[in-house]
Each structure stands twice: as structure tokens, then as C-alpha cells.
Design brief:
This protein is mostly beta strands. The protein has a single domain, classed as monomeric porin ompg (Porin). Helices cover about 10% and strands about 55% of the residues. The chain is built from one helix and 14 strands. The longest helix has 23 residues. The protein is globular.
């Protein structure tokens, strides 16, 4: 639960902040890059895609976005070859002391390939919440891959509706187990405004059954200092059923 005295009123009629303008500009640049790739890479196939997931809890970087209840995520997008994509997604959300129940996101992503085992993925998300906009914001993510080991940095400009920034530094790796299973591990550290919260570590450990179109996962999440979030950062176990088409 995010205490009401930690929130700053969000004026939807206020002109967009400079970071948000920069984020929108970055999305435009990513779309331009992907368009050029689509036009010049004749060997690659561009295509539409879709994703849907049902979760018994919706957790991001250690914090529940569904107040520890079930949630649904659905998205559509377009791949520009194998390096870039744009898309939109809709998630059901629920927060204490916040009337938002739907999160819409538009994103652009581009992957710079350096070698067969090394690449850098740059992603920009624009988030809009309904029916309240206290949590509207942007997230910029850099994901450097070295032979399946990922070093990730993300920056969001409106952490949990407080209008303050969070910088998240993490690592991730998926290990195959047999022919159809994976062990998934992500660990990160959130640097947040010290006047509101203490910075904290989080981990996400999953065991997944994976096919070409369906993934079933059992996931555990943990946060180093959960008490400051009044329940939404408690250690949790939940199921995720995800399909793509």
C-alpha cells in the first residue's frame, strides 16, 4: 500500500515534463530505425504478433501491480525483421488507495547486434493508467546480452505514483532444463528517492514449461525491505500462463 501522504497530485492538463518529451522523441527515433531496417533487410520477415497472459499475481521488479490478486495481460505488435518491434499492451491492475484498474502501454524496441552472441536491446515504454493517471510515466530500458547473460538498466520517471525516479540495475539468465523446461532468474537493485523509500534488492526465480506458442511458469519473488510497501512487496509464489501467436 502506498501511503497517501507520499503521493503528489498529478495534473493531467499540465504540459508534459522534459523527460517525457525526451522519451517520446526516443520512441520516434526507434520507429525510424526499425522502418529503415524493414526497407533495407530483404532477407528478414516483418510480421504482426500477439501475446496474452493470465497471472495469479502481477509482479514487476518485486512489487505487485494487482494488489496480490489475479491479472490479465494482452498485447499486439509488429516485428520489423528480427531487430526491431513496436507494440501496445493492456494490463489489468489494482492498487491500494488508487482507482486505476487498466494500464495501457505503447513501446518501441530495437536490438543492435554486435556478434552472434552479443547484442544490445533498447526499449522505451509510455504508460497510461485508467481511470486515474497518478502513475502515468515512461520507462527506458537498456539490455546488454552476453551469451545469454543479460545486464539490464532501466529508468522510470514516476515510481509508484510518487512523481520521483527509480533507477533499476539488474542481471538475468535463463537456463534450459531438458528439452522443454527452463529455470529463469532475475536479480536487481532499485535506487529510489531516499526521502520516500529505502533503496532495495529484488529477485525473481521461475521454473517454466516452454513450447513454441505456450509457456507455463511457477514464479517466486522476493524484496529485501518489503515492510515499507505495506504488503505489495511481500514474498510471493504465483502462476503465469502465457500464449503467443
Amino acid at each position: 500500500m502506498i501511503p497517501t501522504d507520499k503521493k503528489i497530485q498529478y495534473d493531467q492538463n499540465t504540459e508534459a515534463s522534459l523527460p517525457r518529451k525526451i522519451s517520446i522523441f526516443a520512441t520516434g527515433v526507434l520507429i525510424l530505425l526499425m522502418s529503415l531496417v524493414s526497407l533495407t533487410s530483404h532477407a528478414q520477415t516483418s510480421k504482426m504478433y500477439g501475446e496474452v497472459a493470465v497471472m495469479s499475481n502481477f509482479v514487476e521488479k518485486g512489487l505487485s501491480q494487482s494488489n496480490k490478486g489475479p491479472a490479465v495481460d494482452a498485447g499486439l505488435g509488429y516485428w520489423f525483421g528480427t531487430q526491431g518491434r513496436i507494440g501496445i499492451s493492456a494490463d489489468s491492475v489494482k492498487y491500494p488507495n488508487d482507482g486505476a484498474n487498466v494500464r495501457l502501454a505503447g513501446f518501441g524496441e530495437y536490438k543492435f547486434i554486435f556478434s552472434p552472441t552479443s547484442d544490445l536491446r533498447v526499449r522505451n515504454d509510455l504508460l497510461q493508467y485508467y481511470s486515474e493517471g497518478l502513475r502515468n510515466g515512461t520507462i527506458i530500458t537498456l539490455d546488454q546480452n552476453f551469451s545469454g547473460y543479460h545486464v539490464i538498466i532501466s529508468r522510470e520517471d514516476n515510481f509508484e505514483g510518487t512523481k520521483t525516479q527509480r533507477n533499476w540495475f539488474g542481471m538475468a539468465k535463463d537456463w534450459p532444463y531438458g528439452t522443454s523446461y527452463q529455470i529463469n532468474l532475475t536479480a536487481g537493485y532499485s535506487m529510489v528517492d531516499a526521502a520516500l523509500y529505502n533503496s532495495f534488492f529484488d529477485t525473481r526465480l521461475g521454473f517454466s514449461y516452454v513450447t513454441s506458442s505456450l509457456t507455463v511458469s511457477l514464479i517466486n519473488t522476493w524484496v529485501s525491505s518489503p515492510a515499507q510497501f505495506d504488503g505489495i512487496a511481500d514474498t510471493s509464489f504465483f502462476l503465469v500462463l502465457a500464449a503467443k501467436f
